[in-house]
Amino acid sequence: MKRRDFVIGVISLCVAFFVFVIPFIFVVINAGKSAQEASQLDFSLPDRWLIWQNLIDVVKARDYALLLAYFNSIVITVGAIALLVIFGAMVGYVVQRRPNRATRIVYAVALSGLMIPPAVVPTIWVLQGLGLFKTLHGMILIQVAYGMGFTVLLFRSFIATIPRDLDEAAIIDGAKPWQIFFRVILPLLKPVTVTVIVVQSISIFNDFTHPLYYLPGAENITVQLTLYNFQSQYVSQMNLLFMNILLITIPPLIVFVFFNRQIVAGMTKGAVKG
């Protein structure tokens, strides 16, 4: 059995290396090449490393569009995560602690967001009617809507592991419902909250399609859309494109590496009891 586990572990590491590490090395190598060398798209080392020069060129491109994109992406990510954590925890608590027909319908509607694909054109009509199209706060609400189903699922599963005796003891002490949630339950949700923050922040920060549909305009550019800066019908600056990919990949990668254990703990603990 131990030998079998060892073989499976080695195979898993090899697969992970070829799927994740090799592409990252390829990006790093080509990010340090000249435009002519990078156009060959191979693993050969550059004659002269130009990482710093390529970095400066990427940051300065399109009047420092990358810096604006980072600002917009951070605003969208922070705003959406704050709303997801607060409302996702509230909905998950009510759905788990008060099982009735109404809460089952609410839970079904929340989970339907994981199965029903988004309708782009009707969503644009709604945003235009509300005056939220091409706005950062409209994009924040879109991210909240698309991420709420997964967030409620995690919070509900985790809250199921918290004994109801805590709620009953707080009621006996005279606590109101909102006090029970914010003072008793919410402090116990740290593991799953960290999981939601990390998973959803990486997803939102790396989102390409939703800002493309709902947030057009040069002033609303996000980090993933900056990839268009170095590609056109006639000219492609592959070295700057790979440097741009590297710059927008490193922050989520660092977050995932440092919070990997918390992600696993938050998702597995909630799976003990549904």
From TrEMBL:
Transmembrane segments: 7-29, 67-93, 105-127, 139-159, 180-205, 240-259
Subcellular location: Cell membrane
Keyword Membrane carried by entry: yes
One GO cellular component, as annotated: plasma membrane
Domain ABC transmembrane type-1: residue ranges: 70-259
InterPro entries, per the entry: MetI-like, MetI-like_sf
Membrane topology category: Multi-pass membrane protein
CDD domains listed in its UniProt record: TM_PBP2 (cd06261)
Gene Ontology BP terms: transmembrane transport
Domain of life: Bacteria
Residue stretches in coiled coil: none
Keyword annotations from UniProtKB, A to Z: Cell membrane, Membrane, Plasmid, Transmembrane, Transmembrane helix, Transport
PROSITE patterns according to UniProt: ABC_TM1 (PS50928)
Family: Belongs to the binding-protein-dependent transport system permease family.
Protein name, entry field: Carbohydrate ABC transporter permease
Organism in which the protein naturally occurs: Qingshengfaniella alkalisoli
Lineage: Bacteria, Pseudomonadati, Pseudomonadota, Alphaproteobacteria, Rhodobacterales
